[in-house]
Amino acid sequence: MTAYIAQRVLSSIPVILMVAITTFSILHLAPGDAAGVIAGDQATAQEIERIKNSLGLDRPFVDQLGSWIADVIRGDLGRSLFTGHRVTELITDRLEPTVSLTVLGLLLSVCLGVPLGVLAAWKANSWIDRSVMFFSVSGFSLPGFWLGSMLLIVFAVRLGWLPAIGFVSIFDDVPGFLRNALLPAFTVSTSGAAIVARMTRSNMLEVLSEDYIRTARAKGLREITVVGRHALRPASLPVVTVVGLLLAGLLTGVVVVETVFTIPGLGRLAAEAVLRRDIPVIQGVILVIGTVVVIANLLTDIAYAYLDPRIRY
Fold first, then answer.
1. Would the pLDDT of 37 be above 70?
2. Quick one: three-class SS letters along 47-69?
């Protein structure tokens, strides 16, 4: 097991490096000029060239890439072109809302999707099964910005049960954090719960038709024991993969949700940086999100090896 984990960790390092190179290349090859945005519409060509020179944007592409990667290895993501603050500090200040919403959304996706999928498979072709599948199709199809807006109108504006905007740190006030994070987390988790429910149902139906399940039922085991103990674990392997990949979707969904609910997270930071073409901030946010996705895939591989020992060999 240790050798397998070490192998997966080492194989993740080149992936993170490729994410960094691709991010830097795309942003620097894209049309537009950060120096021109900083200088303003009335700036002369000489002023724009002076800004490029001061920021090092007139250096060859390979030199800029090499310097940036060397700085990243040292933990320096550069400075914002507009505020002058370190990108590491900007990301650290905005990290808690995004991480807490993503983790809470992932937990809601699993806690809603897995039981619904198991229930739909157990009651296949019944009204329960059809209801769960209707939820799955609806949850996967509804746009996040529309769902978030509707939840705001109903539960925050009309009923007044939950706050409409803002974020409270979980370290300062746990009940306040839950009240402020419930609507955005549910918005993020809806599509994820729908995917998990469909995948769980499909795998459970396949496992429940196996011979050893019929044998367990013939021996007189209770149905809840057959479904929960003998069928759920084999059916959970593909679901683990979906949950690992779901993290990337939740991170991208948080960008929209943070804008709708006015949450000061990485999503809003990235949106603001894109509008101002603040390249160092955009690079830093994308690199952090990409690294998180790679780590999530790594944890998924380790969970696979734990659930199915054959994978280690």
1. no
2. HHHHHHHHHCCCCCHHHHHHHHH
Q: Token digits for 281?
A: 């901030």
Q: For the chain, percent helix, then strand, then coil, each to nearest 5?
A: 80, 0, 20
Report the distance separating Cα 305 and Cα 301, nearest Å: 6
Return the number of other C-beta atoms located less than 10 Å from residue 5's C-beta: 14
Cβ atoms 74, 248 nearer than 8 A: no
Cα-only R_g, the chain:
24
Three-class SS of residue 163? Answer: coil
pLDDT at 115 over 80: yes
The tokens for 266 are 């990485």
| CATH architecture label of 98-312 | Orthogonal Bundle (1.10)
First to last CA, the chain: 9
Cα distance between residue 73 and residue 79, in whole Å: 15
Distance CA 24, CA 189 (A): 31
Q: Which two tokens stand for residue 302?
A: 């380790």
The total of other beta-carbon atoms located within 10 Å of residue 264's CB is 15
Indicate the domain borders of the chain: 98-312
The residues, any chain, with a CB within 8 Å of residue 200's CB and separated by 6 or more, are 113, 114, 116, 117, 118, 120, 121, 235, 236, 239
Least Cα distance to 295 among 6, 7, 8 occurs for 8
Tokens of 234: 């084999």
Contacts of 88 (CB under 8 A, 6+ apart): 75, 76, 77, 284
Say what the pTM is. Answer: 0.72
Say yes or no to pLDDT of 143 above 80.
no
CA distances from 76 to 71, 201, 259, 281, 288 (A): 5, 46, 27, 12, 12
